[in-house]
Amino acid sequence: MAASQESALSTNAATSEVDAPVQASSIAQTELGHDGSQATGPELKALRGEGIIDPADIGPSGARSKRDFPVPPPLGVHGPARVISVCNQKGGVGKTTTTINLGAAMAKYGRRVLLVDLDPQGALSVGLGVPIHDLKVTGFEVLMGSATASEALLKTQVPGVDLLPSNIELSAAELYLVNEVGREYVLSRALAPIAADYDVILIDCQPSLGLLTLNALAASKGVLIPLECEYFALRGVALLIQTIQKVQERINPELQMSGILPTMYDARTVHAREVLNRVEETFPDKLFETVITRTVKFPETTVAGLPITEYAPNSGAAQAYQRLAREVLAK
Ligand SMILES: Nc1ncnc2c1ncn2[C@@H]1O[C@H](COP(=O)(O)OP(=O)(O)O)[C@@H](O)[C@H]1O
Ligand SMILES: [Mg+2]
Predict the structure, then answer these.
(1) pLDDT tens-digit profile of 16-53?
(2) Is pLDDT at 202 greater than 70 in this prediction?
């Protein structure tokens, strides 16, 4: 416990410097609390019946608060894309799962979605059923400048979702990019010509804070951080938030935190509930109100090469990503 408290505290100190309004910005200034003073934060939410739910009561469809988000209205005109990186330098926290399923969920709301695989492991591409070893043109060629992004694009089995695939070749790109002029902006330049064709571009980052991830952050408006609900989850988040802050200052002033997404949450364990409580305390206004619970369905979907919204659309997990899509699109 001591270790997690310590890391939570140091993380808190680091985040307080980050100027990144995420949620709760819609809270009106004029409502009064029980003692007649202006109500803020949790008190205001309680007044409105939007209170935070006890972590033990979070169901499979992942509502952390009583408020839901509106179904986004259909779009008459598409683009230009809002680019969001899905980023955490820790592996196995749900980055790829979130990229696929959030993207597919947004497509169900009529959004044109491009998913960019920026991890040489190619898990995003595999998760969408793409045979990555047979590809002639991938993210590698795009970053090297020998192909354009539109030449690398693939349609996926999911209506409305395109993919810029990658495979292990991408690991060489990092070495080449080191000597490139404007090396952090290579992806941003490559995506610019196709940004008008999409409403959302989600970039699945590799588990490191290296040059590929910096390229993702330089190209993005938002960064979504999946955080596994387990004991050491908060370790490393302070470093990630500092990195985001440096990117804001030096490379991309437009970058904002979209929010932290609790993943692999298991309401049956006291441990997961404690971790979620700790995360709520540490990042009160950066946490998404949607929580992704742990379910065996996700590994199954990878084998099927489909997002859960297609594989098991009525499951709690599909509903949770659908809710997350509403939450992200409402911001
Ligand atoms: N909510 C979840 N419940 C259960 N398993 C999950 C969940 N989210 C992801 N997984 C599984 O955990 C593993 C790691 O997830 P992944 O999205 O690949 O993480 P990352 O991209 O951060 O490395 C995968 O096998 C995936 O199927
Ligand atoms: Mg991954």
Answers:
(1) 333 333 333 333 333 333 444 444 555 545 444 557 78
(2) yes
Q: How far apart are CA 157 and CA 310, in angstroms?
A: 10
Angle, nearest 10°, between helix axes 2-15 and 270-282? 30
Ligand nearest to the Cα of 265, by number: 1
Instruction: Report the nearest atom of ligand 1 relative to the CA of 317.
Output: 1
Q: Measure the CA–CA gap between 147 and 132, rounded to whole angstroms.
A: 17
Give distance in angstroms: CA of 97 to centre of ligand 2.
Answer: 7
pTM above 0.90, yes or no: no
| For the ranges 34-43, 276-285, 293-302, 312-321, the one whose mean pLDDT is highest | 312-321
CA gap 76, 109 in Å, rounded: 12
Contact 277, 55 (CB under 8 A): yes
The domain locations on the chain are 2-330
The CATH architecture annotation of domain 2-330 reads 3-Layer(aba) Sandwich (3.40)
Q: How far is the CA of 94 from the centre of ligand 1 (A)?
A: 4
Q: Which of 107, 114, 102, 158 is nearest to 139 (CA)?
A: 114
Q: Residue whose CA is closest, atom 13 of ligand 1?
A: 92
Distance CA 95, CA 203 (A): 9
